Amino acid sequence: AQSVSQHNHHVILSEAASLELGCNYSYGGTVNLFWYVQYPGQHLQLLLKYFSGDPLVKGIKGFEAEFIKSKFSFNLRKPSVQWSDTAEYFCAVNAQQDTDKLIFGTGTRLQVFP
Amino acid sequence: DSGVTQTPKHLITATGQRVTLRCSPRSGDLSVYWYQQSLDQGLQFLIQYYNGEERAKGNILERFSAQQFPDLHSELNLSSLELGDSALYFCASSPGAQVVVEAFFGQGTRLTVV
Questions:
Q1: B41: how many CB neighbours lie within 10 A of its CB?
Q2: CB contact under 8 A, A42 and B58
Q3: Which site among B57, B99, B110 would you substitute to test the A interface, given the most A Cβ atoms closer than 10 Å to its Cβ?
C-alpha cells in the first residue's frame, strides 16, 4: 500500500531562514506528487505538483520541490521564509495506476517568527 | 475560495448520536473525496465518489457512510459517534475520476463529540 512520511512534525524558523521539509513515499510504480498548504483557519491549497519531466518543480510563493526517484523523496524547499509562510504543509502522492486516491502525509507545522 | 462548500462549519454533538456532513463540489466536478483530519492521525482518506458511484475506499469506519446525489453534492453520515471521532472533516472535488490534475478542498467541518 502507498504511504507518505513527513518526518518533521513541527518546524520553527526565523524570517529569512531557509526551509526544507522532507517527504518520502513508499510505492514502487510511477507516482504523481503534490504539496498542499493549509494556512491557519483555511482549506488546503495546492502549492505545487509533479507529474513528469523536470524533477525540480517550482510552485507558488517561491516554493520549489525536487523529486528524487532513487530516494522516493519529494522535499519542499524555500530559500528565505516569511512570517506569512506560517502554515501546515502536506505532502501527497497518488499512483498513476490508481489515481483515485490521494494519500497524504501527516503534515508539518511550520512556524515562522519575525 | 476553492468553490467547494461544506456545511455546517462547526458541529457539537454527544456520543452515540448521528450527524450528517454536506459537501457541494465545484461546478462541473464529478469526483468528491472525503478526508478526516485529526491531531494524531493527520489527514486520512475516507472515501471517494465519482458521478454518484463509490469509486475508492480508504480508512472509513463501518459506522460511517457516504453518498453522492444526482446533483453531485455529497453527504457523509457519521453514526454512533465516539469521542475519538472528533476531527476536522474535509471534502475535496476534482473534475474526473482521477485526481491527477488537482483536488480542491472545502473549508472543512469541525466535529466535536462530547
A1: 12
A2: no
A3: B99
Structure confidence by residue, pLDDT tens digits, B24-33: 999 999 999 9
Closest A-chain CA to B94: A100
As a whole number of angstroms, the distance between CA B70 and CA B79 comes to: 23
Half-sphere exposure for B30 (CA within 13 Å, toward CB): 11
Residue in B73, B58, B89, B78 with CA at minimum distance from that of residue B3: B73
Q: Which of A32, A101, A104 sits opposite B56 (nearest CB)?
A: A101
Residue B48: its chain A contacts at CB < 8 A?
100-101
**Structure confidence at residue A87 as a pLDDT band (50, 70, 90):** very high
What is the per-residue pLDDT for B4?
Answer: 96
C-alpha to C-alpha distance for A37 and B61, rounded to whole angstroms: 27
Under 8 Å between Cβ of A102 and A92: yes
Q: Looking at the predicted structure, is the pLDDT value of residue A17 above 80?
A: yes
Is the pLDDT score of A31 beyond 80? yes
Find the residue in B nearest to A51 (Cα): B100
